[in-house]
# Entry
Amino acid sequence: MTKKLIWLEDHPELNVDFHKKLNDSGFDVVICENVGDFGKEVKLNLDNPDQVAGFILDILIRTNNLEELDMPQVTPQRGAETGYAVLRHYIRNVRDRSPIGDTFKEHPVLMLSTMSEASMRISFNTEGDKLTNWLSKADQKGHTDAALKSMQRWLQTLKG
# Structure
């Protein structure tokens, strides 16, 4: 059975090259254009977490809370932090309040942003989290090959 990559991306039309690379790599890519759809897709896989290869999260998602993930207490300061809040509070269950518990805590996550990779690492501390990788979509503009190679390396880690 083909493993899934669940991708939270509110503008998938801007990431056609990445989507093609993912599909060509043999994964079933499920794109969720909002936090609510992402939560529904994750919950559909709670009984079979081994069928999920990993997650891809856009950092900038236009919402100010995670109510749709049954986590109204989590309110990102800006939409720019929503993907990171989903990572920490929903997937990694940092404060033990995630409605999905620790089910996907050990799953790999690729964080995408228009920020530079260095800026992301400084802005969003994931020290000690060896399962989270960063990729700048900014690299796509004029540097598509480099960004796609970075994505390919991440995909190889998923395949083992």
About this structure: The mean pLDDT is 79. The beta strands are 4-8, 28-32, 52-58, 109-113, 132-136. The first helix runs from residue 16 to 24.
